[in-house]
Amino acid sequence: MLTRDVKAAFFYGVTTTGVFCRPGCASRRPLRANVRFFRSASEAIAAGFRPCERCHPTIAAAWGGPLDKIRAHLEDHLDRMVSLKELGRITDLSPFTVQRIFKRAMGVSPLQYQRVLRAGRLRGALKRGGAVTDAIYEAGFGSSSRAYEGAALGMTPARFAQGGRGERIGWCIARSPFGWMIAGATGRGLCWLALAGTAAEAQASLRTEFPLATLHRDSALSKWVEKAVASVRSSAAGVQDQAAPEALDLRGTAFQLRVWQALRQIPRGQTRSYSELARQLGDTKATRAVARACATNRVALLVPCHRVVGASGSLTGYRWGVDRKRKLLDAEKAL
After folding, report:
1. Over 50: is that where the pLDDT of 113 sits?
2. Where are the beta strands (DSSP E) in the chain?
3. Degrees (nearest 5) of the Cα angle 47, 101, 319?
4. Confidence grade of residue 131 (pLDDT, cut at 50, 70, 90)
5. Which of 197 and 157 is assigned the larger pLDDT?
6. What pLDDT, in 10s, does the model give residues 70-105?
7. What dihedral do alpha carbons 129, 130, 131, 137 form, nearest 10°?
8. What does pTM read for this prediction?
9. Beta pairing, strands 168-176 & 214-217
10. Closest by alpha carbon to 42, among 65, 69, 75, 88?
11. Exposed (0-12), middle (13-18) or buried (19+): which is 240, by Cβ within 10 Å?
């Protein structure tokens, strides 16, 4: 990123501006503490960042015009579902080809792209303040009920808009074998446990997630870092040594809470695929929803979303980095 390598295969988002770029972007370099890295443009959008208007990170050079047309058409019609047939008409391509080239370049289908873009815009609009209803329609949701069902905010739009307003969150930061860890807790329990490359990045992650909360240091929370590391490195079998459910302040939709609870039942040293978790929850069509719930998990290790892999066994994505996910799984399997 510092050398502006145009061939680098990743993206970066800047928390202070809400914009994400390619590494070769000519924009002014931000402070390291304000930077988050992503493997794909769709991951950046899902995290609430919008494309840079200078380097246009959502445009892939390989397919040039057709891909740009598809992307622009999807972004111009966020208030409704755009069919593959419709996209085929505007690009003179078959629906199959549209799906194939878009997913190859963007990492998601056109339908998924619309969904994550709407959710990302809603996050951005809510964080900028203003009325919740205005933010919902500005983001492209046709009704408030659709926003509450499909925004993947981890909480209702109204609650997300509060950004932790009125919350008093204690925090503690410490090194671990898997990088820097930061624990954040309300009076109800642990609400944030994140991994990062530096202490500054770890602290910034808490502030980004709860921008309006009152934060204060609490060294007593170091116990959560110890519990998290023990959940990976301890030789004890099962998940009994993990935090009791009542000690966690997990905020999400009913479905997300079900997924997070299912994650806590995966024994150390084992993995499950997204489709296996969907079947376990009684909905074989919920594979993508399970993946989104894993991606919005706020409590690393203790809610072990790193134990979920692709159907082929591939590591796929991880909120705190695929390399760190590999290291966690290797540590658990070595016991």
Report:
1. yes
2. 11-14, 19-21, 35-38, 50-51, 168-176, 179-186, 189-196, 214-217, 272-273, 308-309
3. 20
4. low
5. 197
6. 888 887 777 678 899 999 998 888 898 888 888 776
7. -90
8. 0.53
9. parallel
10. 75
11. exposed
Are 291 and 269 contacting, i.e. CB atoms less than 8 angstroms apart?
A: no
How far is 184 from 166, CA to CA, in rounded Å? 15
What CA–CA distance (Å, rounded) separates 223 from 230?
10
DSSP state of 19: E
Paired tokens of 220: 């007593």
Burial class (CB in 10 A: 0-12, 13-18, 19+), 247: middle
Domains of the chain with CATH codes: 11-51 (3.40.10.10), 168-333 (1.10.10.10)
Nearest to 293 by CA among 258, 242, 322, 246: 258
* Catalytic residue ranges: 21, 305
Q: What is d(CA 16, CA 318) in angstroms, rounded to the nearest whole number?
A: 22
Spatial separation of the C-alpha atoms in residues 205 and 36, rounded to whole Å: 9
Q: Are 85 and 95 in contact (CB under 8 A)?
A: yes
CB atoms within 10 A of CB 48: 22
The CA-based dihedral angle spanning residues 268, 247, 250, 129, taken in that order and rounded to the nearest 10 degrees: -140
Q: What is the pLDDT of residues 236-290, one digit of tens each?
A: 444 444 555 458 887 776 678 888 889 999 998 899 999 999 898 888 888 888 8
Q: Specify the amino acid at residue 174.
A: A
| Residue 69 structure tokens | 């047309």
φ/ψ of 169, rounded to 5, equals: -115, 120
Give the per-residue pLDDT at 189.
86
What is the rounded distance in angstroms from the CA atom of residue 8 to the CA atom of residue 214?
38
User: Going by C-beta distance under 8 Å and a sequence separation of 6 or more, which residues neighbour residue 7?
Assistant: 24
Summarised one tens digit per residue, pLDDT across range 176-233 is 989 999 999 988 889 899 999 899 899 888 888 887 788 999 999 998 888 888 888 7
Cβ atoms of residues 178 and 9 within 8 Å: no
Distance from C-alpha of 189 to C-alpha of 23, rounded to nearest angstrom: 38
